[in-house]
Design a protein that fits this description.
Layout (H helix, E strand, L loop, with lengths): L7 E8 L7 E7 L4 E7 L13 E6 H6 L1 H11 L1 H11 L5 H4 L2 H8 L4 H7 L4 H7 L2 H11 L8 H7 L1 H9 L9
Antiparallel strand pairs: 1-2, 2-3, 3-4
Helix pairs in contact: 2-3, 8-10, 9-10
Pfam families: F-box-like
Protein name: F-box only protein 36a
């Protein structure tokens, strides 16, 4: 499973809170076991022009004890990102969220529609997958008894979800929610 993780567990970048216009980037790396915090000072002041970016590299364990860095990360990206970064450094990795979409869609194909509706409420990613054309195409092709190859052009034209709810939801479905 670890091969699905890749080099970076998480990364985010953005402008810090006003009044400064500084830019920040956070990367949490698995293979090297480190947290990388980069900052760029954005200023019109002459003494700040051409200033190189700052970079701090720390191990996951050291990050857990580095309260000042945690405060800065929380101020820039918010409490939710701070808590997520801490959990990653503690080794709490959500492997299901990290699976590629095609594998997730394959797993979702075993769910009943009612279960897929509940899954869509879990996260933004699952909502996106449950509402995707690929999910609904698979649902129509594999679960609807009245589907014919002639309907494929209609599905591509008006959308597979529309095909399902127009033609199959109330009468032609192999499964009843």
């Amino acid at each position: 499973m670890a091969s699905l993780i890749g080099e970076q567990l998480f990364q985010i970048g953005g402008q810090g809170p006003p009044p400064p216009k500084d830019f920040f980037h956070l990367a949490v790396c698995e293979k090297r076991g480190e947290v990388i915090w980069r900052s760029w000072t954005i200023s019109l002041r002459l003494d700040c022009r051409g200033a190189p970016p700052k970079e701090l590299r720390t191990s996951h364990q050291d990050f857990l004890h580095h309260k000042r860095l945690q405060q800065q990360l929380g101020a820039v990206f918010g409490q939710r990102i701070l808590e997520y970064t801490i959990s990653l450094c503690q080794g709490k990795i959500d492997y299901l969220e990290r699976l590629p979409d095609d594998i997730m869609l394959r797993i979702m194909s075993y769910l009943q529609l009612k279960e897929a509706t509940l899954l869509a409420q879990v996260s933004h990613r699952f909502r996106k997958l449950c509402n995707s054309e690929k999910f609904w195409e698979h649902t129509v092709r594999n679960r609807c008894a009245g589907f014919t190859s002639d309907m494929e052009d209609i599905g591509n034209a008006i959308g597979w979800r529309n095909i399902f709810f127009t033609f199959f939801h109330t009468s032609g479905s192999k499964e009843q929610q």
